[in-house]
Fold this protein.
Amino acid sequence: MADIKKHDTPTVDELKSGPWPSFVDDIYSYAEKHQKQSCFDLMGQLELSYKHKETHWKHGGIVGVFGYGGGVIGRYSDQQEKFPAIWAFHTIRVNQPASKWYHTSLLRKLCEMWDHRGSGLFNFHGSTGDAVLLGTVTEQLEPVFFDLTHQFNMDLGGSGSNLRTPSCCVGKARCEWSCLDTQAICYDLTMTYQDELHRPAFPYKFKFKISGCPNDCVAAIARADCSIIGTWIDDIQIDQEAVRAYVGGELKPNAGAHSDRDWGPFDIQKEVIDLCPTQCMYWDEKEKKLYINNKECNRCMHCINVMPEALRPGKETGATILMGAKAPILEGAQLSTVIVPFMRMEPPYDTLKELIDKVWDFWMENGKNRERVGEIMQRVGLNRFITDILGLKPIPQHVREPRSNPYVFWKEEEVPGGWERDLAEFRKRHPA
Amino acid sequence: MADKIYEEIQNTQLDEIYSKPYDPELAEKLFNPQKPMENRITDIGPPHYAQFFPPEIKKNYGKWKSHEIVQPGVIKYTSETGDVVYAVRVGTPRLITSDYIREVCDIADKYCGGYVRWTTRNNIEFHVTDEEKLRALLDDLKSRKHPGGSYKFPVGGTGASVTNIVHTQGWIHCHTPAIDASGVVKSVMDELFEYFGSHKLPAQVRVALACCLNMCGAVHCSDIAILGIHRKPPLIEDDRLQYVCEIPLVVAACPLGAIKPATVEINGEKKKTVRVNKERCMFCGNCYTMCPAMPLADHEGDGIAILVGGKISNRISPPKFSKLVIPYLPNEPPRWPTVVKTVKKILETYAQHARKYERLGEWAERIGWEKFFELCEIPFTDKSIDDYRLAYDTYRTSLHFKFTSHVEPM
Amino acid sequence: MAMDKEELKRKIMEFMEKKSGAKSKVYLKDMQRAIPDASPRDIKKAANELVQEGKLEYFSTGSTVMYGIPGKGQPVEQKG
Ligand code: HEM
Ligand code: HEM
Ligand code: HEM
Ligand code: HEM
Ligand code: SF4
Ligand code: SF4
Ligand code: SF4
Ligand code: SF4
């Protein structure tokens, strides 16, 4: 304890002021209280980065604990003389409970463990959803894992070319719009694919994300190789009484989301009917009644968002399954593409799992190193992917519009007579 | 079937393991490096989610009827059973200490029966069931400050606000960042603080930050994205490279195939090394990941690009990618004044001009991007014209454009 | 023509030994290419078992995972 070494960090200290919670103040208060050398060293190295405008970390080959091919990111300081307590500063990804609810008994115990075995710093949470323990040395990795599994009933999340930790929105636990049991699906997939989550299985990473409705609060459509997004196939539920209350100004539009600015009185025509992207709504001023032509609705959620007391998604619910989102590296970014417009989602989710198995089998067999599912979909073509690989019927919902070039790759068996032709016969008709 | 899930949730109890004290010596007793499989438990997965649902959330699972944001940061949920729950949303810096989490626990124990939840965007949500507790909780949250004066638990992030910035690791933990993450986020949120705790904007504005083009956060579909970029190819330490890296692995690491093996002579000694085709390099840092003798970061070259107009939700218009409007801003620790000023300018121009419900990208598309550049006073450069793959998608192939100040009749 | 698992493991190790002179780490994909008559899933299972047995080890490239023979080539831990 005696020889704790603190560093001057005048530049970093400038981030203590201002109203937004200061991570610098938090880390320093903690370091002082617990006399944590690693925290002082981390701030010292950050100061150096602020001065040099360059990072001082190096990567390492460590991927996990024994037998696991993921869950740990190896980090080493390039200033180990100056900052010996962070010579190694690995992160550990801990699989979060679905939709990130906790009880304090777990959290307090976790804090105690991490004070003891690591830096006491966390990322709550990493962008894939894991609770991230930030910073420990190599010798502590196995003990942390033994603690997690023996004393917390917790396990590591995914990294590298593994399945990544699935994540989901708050769903039916607290949102009236959820068309899915998001946590149940998330938990089921996580448990079903434990082997894929912990050990490399694929040419590259694979992610599941589950949102309960088209608002897509976990950004499934942009971040997941397999995006599972709740939707409904019947009619939007209408409470005409409540619609009239919105029109009459008794209820606040959009649940009060615009309360700090005067946008004038609520105008259902301008704010709902005219903004409906499919123009499928009609407000009868005389009757004081809202009509929705549900056959034309594309379930964008706008009207429901504006009048949550009056409108709700339909009762016949399920999921739209989309695939192939990926970050820009390498072929450019992609959003997920609709694969199955409507799938009923009931445990044990066999229909979904059969679909996933087909995709994985094909990708494991044919994917190149570092090729995401979205990229292989492009390489083989969405049409072949849907028909030949998944065995699904091509439908207009798969595309935004039909192609505008005629360069169709016809297959031989689709053309009468095939491709083998008799040249002699041809020349009889067309002398050379 | 849904009933079965409801039932399962009702029957899931908080695991008793969490009330047993932590044993700091247990792991050393169980783990034997000579026999690593001994006592090893694997593939148990995460704890069951339902044990962490507070009683009122459990009971009303799937029964929620509607919600109302009663004030910025406070959402009131009403159930078909008549039950009411208030969720209070507070911002966090994501990078937090165990003492901060203990303070969260103190609050959750005092007001929320020990339950608490984190959101996708690094906010925390506290749940209470009556208004009296709500008031007390809000007062309590407001009173908690760090020594430097910042709020520990600012309330907001709902409705037409700027909610928390999702971000990556930066200089705190990653080896390839061009910029810091936590420091930039703190600086931007300090400046936009009033928009976090209010509903003044035309619609919600999602800001995100990634510190290099690997983009570990959800950035590419954000209303405003702050992206760290490198602009210099890696250095190559010829005299050291062969001793610290495996050349075939380095060659394989480059996604663009820009690295080739090479041999050089240093002081009459032949050394194996590599060469980078600099025209091909996209500054991704994968080579440095595999080889510490190929550092990428550079204090002059690195900086920040700004992308705007992306969205995730399907509301009104489909999800969109963010577009690159500023290719480079300088890297200015500790407070990044140019970035902060630029982000604020874009936000406030949008707030002034957009219609109710209109997201930033929808506004820019309605008025035309040429108009967006003019209104936000952002110089248009050749860097905003795509020359990567599928670039043609963004070229203008119609006469539908406006005559902004950019047009000089010829 | 499912290959017996021990046979498959032997083939993987053979491939790894041969490779490790020039390039000590390989992708799962490289193994699959070298042993085309086994299914990708079986190779994955066998390779992961070899890790459990301590005959292979994982190696992180930052965003993907490779396999190597412990002690050969670039070390997993980069002290100093
Ligand atoms: C080729 C692209 C990518 C590379 C090379 C890469 C590399 C890395 C590295 C080196 C780290 C460790 C940072 C640290 O803790 O020091 C990291 C963290 C992380 N990455 Fe990536 N990454 C890539 C793309 C992505 C993408 C597209 C996502 C998500 C969709 C992602 C999600 C994450 C997450 C969740 C973390 C944990 C830390 C955090 O939340 O900030 N990565 N990545
Ligand atoms: C393989 C693709 C195509 C080829 C080889 C092709 C070839 C041609 C040729 C040779 C002509 C001149 C005909 C003549 O005056 O004798 C022509 C005219 C024309 N093509 Fe195409 N074309 C193709 C696709 C398309 C497509 C996809 C469109 C529209 C979407 C299109 C629209 C036209 C029009 C409008 C003209 C008439 C121009 C005019 O004389 O006013 N073509 N095309
Ligand atoms: C009952 C109503 C809603 C509930 C319970 C809900 C819940 C949530 C939660 C808990 C988050 C994470 C939020 C955070 O950290 O700040 C979130 C994010 C989000 N919500 Fe909602 N939300 C609702 C309504 C909406 C509406 C009306 C929209 C769109 C119009 C929407 C779109 C989004 C989007 C795009 C995100 C951000 C996802 C991301 O980038 O991470 N949500 N929502
Ligand atoms: C035209 C530009 C862009 C497009 C089309 C795009 C598209 C995408 C897509 C489809 C994903 C899903 C990624 C995955 O799961 O691997 C993604 C992920 C991501 N993108 Fe972008 N992106 C773009 C630009 C950006 C920019 C400029 C940033 C940062 C400023 C960014 C940051 C990210 C991050 C951080 C993720 C990971 C999300 C996660 O946590 O899962 N993107 N992007
Ligand atoms: S995605 Fe839909 S169901 Fe899920 S929390 Fe958001 S609004 Fe609710
Ligand atoms: S959900 Fe969207 S498309 Fe459907 S009626 Fe409402 S506003 Fe129109
Ligand atoms: S975005 Fe880049 S620099 Fe930032 S944490 Fe991810 S890989 Fe590292
Ligand atoms: S920075 Fe990326 S693109 Fe450039 S040489 Fe290195 S690996 Fe290749």
Summary: Residues A 169-171, 175, 177-178, 211-213, 215-217 surround iron/sulfur cluster (ligand 5) (CB under 6 Å). Residues 337-353 of chain B form the longest helix (17 residues). Chain B touches chain C through 14 residues (CB under 8 Å).
